[in-house]
Amino acid sequence: MPVCGTFDGKPASGCEAEIQTEELKNLKPERLVGLEKSLQLSTEGFITLTYKGPLSPATGTADAFIIRFVCNDDFYPGTTKFLHQDIDSGLGIRNTFFEFETALACVPSPVDCQVTDVAGNEYDLSGLSRVRKPWTAVDTSADGRKRTFYLSVCNPLPYIPRCHGSAVGSCLVSEDNSWNLGVVQISPQAAENGSLSIVYVNGDKCGNQRFSTRITLECAQTSGSPTFQLLDDCEYVFVWRTVEACPVIRVEGDNCEVKDPRHGNLYDLKPLAVNDTVVSAGEYTYYFRVCGKLSSEVCSTNDRSKVISSCQEKRGPEGFQKVAGLLTQKLTYENGLLKMNYTGGDTCHKVYQRSTTIFFYCDRSTQRPVFLRETSDCSYLFEWRTQHACAPFDLTECSFKDEAGNTFDLSSLVRYSDNWEAVTRTGATEHYLINVCKSLSPQAGSEPCPPEAAACLLGSSKPVNLGRVREGPQWRDGATVLKYVDGDLCPDQIRKKSTTIRFTCSESQVNSRPMFISAVEDCEYTFSWPTPAACPVRSNVHDNCQVTNPATGHLFDLSSLSGRAGHTAAYSEKGLVYISVCDDNENCSPGVGACFGQTRISVGKANKRLTYVDQVLQLVYEDGSPCPSKSGLTYKSVISFVCRPEAGPTNRPMLISLDKQTCTLFFSWHTPLACEQVTECSVRNGSSIIDLSPLIHRTGGYEAYDESEDDTSDTGPDFYINICQPLNPMHGVPCPAGAAVCKVPVDGPPIVSMGNTRQKQ
């Protein structure tokens, strides 16, 4: 801490202040420490850092700051707390004790995947940690073909050849080397605007420091893949837009059912309600029935208004029977957990009413429930593992690399609220439902497809499972191939039905659907799917605050957010950052796009280089003021723009984090300008799908003539039309932006817009 002064020209590590002050420049330091430093690990596992001041010539002793580090994986970098100060007036020394809670004091190991932000919203990333193999990051950089990033969430990576170390959370493998990019040690962190971040630290050496990894997760209604953004000094930065990063909403269902608010999955525990359940624990026996009345002759009552569902029994001469809960059919989905709570039991300790809570966990089959404990307020807790509590979908990695190093990512085709319906021959009675890298989403109707199916045939007597998710997509014979296996039995009663989907790159077929090709022996089903999602992932950069999606051609324009007046983002209770989009800020020095409010220190020069990589818009301001923590570095700001269709309180820049080691500020901005809406171009007509997407004009538009016009001298078209999409730019025909139909009058105003694309009918 330079403000404390120096020892022989070297900054002190700490000091006391003569007077209390908010401004460090007014600090009057005394009792400097840091001349000697020592770090110790006790046999109990405590880490202690000691700073000592200069020795007193008279006593040979010195003042000291003693800092004990305490493991708390929720705090990063950490929080410091003053404990006490011991004063020895005889020796004239003071020993000051502090406690520092930080995740860096924890042994690398799996961490809790649940996190709560300051507004009380809860998030659960455990859905990303259940994948059987690691996540492979999308990398469109110049080095992307020669290297692969492997990432995990909350749990260490499984075994990967050449990835070394214990509890590794991020690993980079190149053609001739590999690096540990950080270990699992810190729980996910939540920012005010709902952005989540995962930080893995203490990787392999990088110069005089160590590699680390930062993953920023944004809520999106897709199952995205992690995307490499940049290397910031020794920290690799990724962005991940996924539905798993959306807030968890507690919901309560009735009739022994509840629907998952995130994915729409329905959990039904009525199969557990057939009989009474009996659990013995020590001297007590517990009886309960899920969603029903106890049929056992226990805890009988003459009060007909009470329907008993849970009972506690103690046998023997001092035995008794106590009502431990009345009937309920309400099932709660809370933070990925199912629970049922029976209340209104007999009085306990003259204060409380007995109650019973059952937590239901997913397992391959239904086990016997287990008594956990009795709480101080007389609530009896049980755990019940059953297949009825399992989420009815499987999920697998949806991105991969081919032998040439190209990255492919099909995650934009994953559906959670509905499914893809394949195009079949005209008049066909069968319907094929398909999802990508995930089992089918729930369907309406009395005979839905099996919940584990990823492809399903409808139209026969009952739905047919055509295969389950097992492995992610792979590159075979010049195409991306996704295969589902272990469906229903084939007609030969030996093999099981399977589905193969061949994806081909077609940047023009934006609204395409899978097309049914064949069903060999009603056993092996094949589909073809030309789609931009099967093209190698590419990045795009423009220099005018605009950028296009290279796959769809959609133009993102953020120029309406620009202006020298700019915006503000808070980084502390009193501190602000002034920031402008694609322009310098009037509160900062000329040419500076962002700066600290109090000091006007530049955190990046303005530019208009907007980039697009795999659904993420990003603006990077570099070459700010020198970084005080490290020579040779300068401040930098990274602004990520995220789709948020509706305007709201987060429709402004939010500072997610400030890395003081690298002087990098990470901002997130939720705005409708980052959204890309694709108009559907197909409709169901009875038993078939009518798909008009082949009629979409990719250049210009269709020309139409009004034959009722008498003027034969005008040979130009009267109308320009496109199907399902806006008209493309045409030289000499200035149709309004976004118009799908426009008219060319003989005289008067040059162009009239006749309508924009909305939705098929």
UniProtKB/TrEMBL annotation:
GO molecular function: D-mannose binding; insulin-like growth factor binding; signaling receptor activity
Protein's GO biological process: lysosomal transport
Keyword field: Disulfide bond, Membrane, Signal, Transmembrane, Transmembrane helix, Transport
Localization (cell): Endomembrane system
GO cellular component, one term: trans-Golgi network
Location of the MRH domain: 1-108, 111-248, 254-392, 396-537, 543-677, 679-761
Keyword DNA damage attached: no
Protein name as catalogued: Cation-independent mannose-6-phosphate receptor-like
Upper classification of the organism: Eukaryota, Metazoa, Chordata, Craniata, Vertebrata
Encoding gene per record: LOC102729114
